[in-house]
UniProtKB/TrEMBL annotation:
Function: Catalyzes the hydrolytic deamination of adenine to hypoxanthine. Plays an important role in the purine salvage pathway and in nitrogen catabolism.
UniProt-recorded name of the protein: Adenine deaminase
Catalytic function, reaction form: adenine + H2O + H(+) = hypoxanthine + NH4(+)
Residues binding Zn(2+): H19, H21, H199, D280
NCBIfam families: aden_deam, PRK09358.1-6
GO cellular component, one term: cytosol
Sequence positions that bind substrate: D281
Length: 341
């Protein structure tokens, strides 16, 4: 595929996003506006200084800045505006469906009530259906650096809003916080009717992926790029068609890979794994899905068929009903026919 015309092709391609932290979509401009409105003092004096500080050497160095950014979010309206800004961008990139993480503990730990967070996010997601034609699901993540008890309390606080939340997940500092810490919380979440996903194999070893599958019954693995270190694990992921929500620009920014040229996305695809491309924390990592796909295409020589497969996988790996998945895949196929050659 020639570089010419690639950007509009990738941008307009119908796709789903399955790995985006809503707090990670907080662009510096909105962060500044909210901080000013809420009189929250910031360490960085300008938007430019803030952006310049987005240099990370591992996951933790990012998380420190990410949690600092959340301090600007206080009211239901703040969470609405945060989510709405993401949805506007998603619409521009023809994201047809988004499964969005939120980190309630990043807010309740600061004294912001659970219901303030979820009401603001939910209202934006509802309004996006008629406004942008974007469907969505919410995934509530537990912060793995906090205790299992704290996760259990968060799960309990979520129950009155169960109908607004499709799944639970696990994020934050991976190393030293293996899946087994949250076995009981996830069992309780499944019993309450939640689906389950987990970040695993981003910085952590393949063993964390096995445990996310076997102990937490994760239906998707977020990141999972370290699976290649374990051939038996790869075999299982292929055989059971367990999706990996891969985030290429994130992996480079957090030094999981030295450069995009070193990323294993193309290898994962060629092995027949159900991989998808996602943005993770786009305000911090330099791009949304289009930028991730474009940069990956250029660095790894992805073919037109690879890009189609990634988009198709994004619908198949979603928590939409088979009917809704098929409708979106049909839309994707019509798009491909209209952009043949
Ligand atoms: N990994 C773990 N936790 C996170 C991430 C991530 O990429 N983004 C936001 N919280
Ligand atoms: Zn993530």
């Amino acid at each position: 595929m020639t570089a010419h015309g690639l950007e509009p092709f990738i941008r307009d391609l119908p796709k789903a996003e399955l790995h985006v932290h809503i707090e990670g979509t907080l662009e510096p401009e909105l962060l500044y506006e909210l901080a000013r409105r809420n009189r929250v003092p910031l360490r960085f004096r300008t938007v430019e200084a803030l952006r310049a500080a987005y240099q990370f050497h591992n996951l933790q160095s990012f998380l420190d800045i990410y949690y600092e950014g959340t301090r600007a979010l206080l009211s239901e309206q703040d969470f609405f505006e945060l989510t709405w800004a993401y949805l506007e961008r998603a619409a521009q990139q023809n994201i047809r469906h988004a499964e969005i993480f939120f980190d309630p503990q990043a807010h309740t730990e600061r004294g912001v009530p659970f219901n303030t967070v979820i009401r603001g996010i939910h209202r934006a997601l509802e309004e996006a259906i008629p406004r942008f034609g974007i469907s969505s699901k919410l995934i509530m993540c537990f912060l793995r650096h906090l205790s299992a008890d704290a996760a259990m309390r968060t799960l309990e606080a979520s129950l009155p809003f169960k109908d607004w939340i499709a799944a639970v997940g696990l994020d934050s500092s991976e190393l030293g916080h293996p899946p087994e810490k949250f076995v009981e919380v996830f069992a309780r979440a499944r019993a309450a009717g939640y689906l389950t996903v987990a970040h695993a194999g981003e910085e952590g070893p393949p063993d964390y992926i096995w445990k996310a599958l076997d102990l937490l019954k994760a239906l998707r693995i977020d990141h999972g790029v370290r699976c290649l270190e374990d051939p038996a694990l790869v075999q299982r992921l292929v055989r059971e068609r367990i999706p990996l929500t891969v985030c290429p620009l994130s992996n480079v920014k957090l030094c999981v890979f030295k450069s995009l040229e070193d990323h294993n996305l193309k290898t994962l695809l060629d092995l027949g794994l159900c991989v998808t491309v996602n943005s993770d924390d786009p305000a911090y990592f330099g791009g949304y899905i289009t930028e991730n796909l474009l940069a990956s295409q250029q660095a790894l020589g992805l073919t037109r068929h690879d890009i189609y497969t990634l988009a198709r996988n994004s619908f198949e790996a979603s928590f939409l009903s088979i009917d809704k998945q098929q409708r979106l895949i049909d839309e994707l196929d019509r798009f491909m026919d209209a952009h043949a050659g």
